[in-house]
Amino acid sequence: MALIQYLTQIHIDFGAVAMLPQVCEQAGIHRPLVITDIGVRSAGVLAQALAPWGAYPPPVFDQTPANPTEAAVRWAVQLCHHGFCDGLIAIGGGSSMDLAKGVAIAATHQGALKNYATIEGGSLQITAAVLPVIAVPTTAGTGSEVARGAILIVDDGRKLGFHNWVLMPKVALCDPELTLSLPPRLTAATGMDAIAHCMETFMSDAINPPADGIALDGLRRGWAHIERATLNGQDREARWQMMSCSMQGALAFQKGLGCVHSLSHALGAADPRLHHGTLNAVFLPAVIRFNAAAPGMQREQRLQRMAQAMGLAGEAAAGDGVALARAVSAMNARLGLPAGLAELGVDPQLFVAVIKAALLDHCHKTNPREASAADYLEMLHASL
């Protein structure tokens, strides 16, 4: 049975961040803890977001790692308890938002964080006691501001997903103004992350027609504007469209993702220095080629419909998976993203561990074509 559920209140426009004190009050948050990272603070974006509080801003935890960890969650929980905080404001990219969701769980639930991981059967152990979260994205990529899940590296080294509807932010303030200073490389990587969400969730054969429509529209917006946003960060129209693409991709991926994310989660855990969005961009072409043979892809003409949304012609528009994959690779090249894993310094000796983790990843099961260990190995080599 399909579950179709949209809950987060979303404000998207330039200047939306000025509503932050107001939406906190509406959510019943009187003593918020801000979760962010050093980069957001250094860029002046944190000060911009907290300006409505004037001389009395809320306390801030700014030590979010690029790949958030259980250790960072514990650190933030200590600050949260010390300040008697009753809610969280996540200001940043997916790392800050995921860390905030981890804090929301750990601050109100007992035991190790891994006990609440989806793969451990812990989703139903996450209760409505979680701290409420307000999300303010500063990148257009993960869409975690409207998602029910978080990805965290737990103490045993695994990169695990945590999913429950109570983890969805109460409000998302999507203010493209906060993304204007995002550097070109990060704009490209986070933008391809959003595009990968739209494409991969649309390829999944789970039944969710609204998600399909949202994904296709998000793909259309993202594909048409990612180069403009990367080449000219001050292009306000392109920044707005990429913010929408990111948000729409995450609204859609409640339907499920697939092998792109199984691989990027697994490799990101094995080598935490790697950027998640960049990995998604690198893996997407190989997974498109693998998925092209799935019966549902042919029956529903999913390749053709994606190509149409992307404005592609020729073989790609006719539903050729190889041609569509080439179009994605060409976009990666135009954006200045790595051509493959070798350029990122990935050691093929990691592949055995990566495949093992990918087969256990929560995204593995919703790929439109079941991947074996041999299939994953082929995709990894194709992505080198």
From TrEMBL:
InterPro entries: ADH_Fe/GldA, ADH_Fe_C, ADH_Fe_CS, Alcohol_dehydrogenase_Fe. It comes from the Bacteria. Its cofactor is Fe cation. CDD domains: Fe-ADH-like. The keyword Transcription does not apply. Residues 187-383 form the Fe-containing alcohol dehydrogenase-like C-terminal domain. Keywords: NAD, Oxidoreductase. Belongs to the iron-containing alcohol dehydrogenase family. This is Iron-containing alcohol dehydrogenase. It comes from Roseateles albus. The lineage of its organism: Bacteria, Pseudomonadati, Pseudomonadota, Betaproteobacteria, Burkholderiales.
